[in-house]
Specification:
This protein is α+β, with helices and mostly antiparallel strands. The chain is built from three helices and four strands; from the N terminus they run ββαββαα. A hairpin with a 2-residue loop joins strand 1 and strand 2.
């Protein structure tokens, strides 16, 4: 079970419906048909390779390949992205405390529970 969450300054903008099964993050993004202002900066992880072809103002880390190490500039860029993405990682860490993504709820019920817990986190009622 997966959800795609969009945050802005630690506030939830969008939570997708529950995605059943194994799907690539970028495919989920394309299927949601979310519209972003062309000036909005999307900061994503490597699961969204190719997003820059859809949204020009996207920041995605450089990928390290087997026989190709990253330059110092690329490593610094990746570090800056990590520091900006940490809030979404913390968000999912808090969600996982409730083990909600491991339980086999029906999709509608799971979405309701996820929204409730996500709202509590967003309002700072769960730390």
């Amino acid at each position: 079970m997966k959800f795609q969450v969009t945050l802005k300054y630690n506030q939830i903008l969008h939570i997708s419906d529950a995605i059943v099964g194994s799907q690539h993050d970028f495919k989920i993004f394309k299927d949601t048909n979310l519209l972003f202002n062309k000036y909005a900066t999307l900061i994503v992880d490597l699961g969204y390779l190719g997003i820059d072809k859809i949204h020009n103002n996207s920041l995605i880390p450089y990928k390290k390949y087997k026989n190709h190490s990253l330059s110092t500039e690329n490593l610094e860029f990746n570090k800056q992205i990590r520091t900006k993405r940490i809030s979404i990682e913390h968000f999912f860490a808090k969600i996982k405390v409730f083990k909600i993504l491991k339980n086999s709820y029906q999709s509608k019920q799971l979405h309701t529970h996820f929204l409730f817990i996500a709202s509590l986190i967003s309002f700072g009622l769960i730390s």
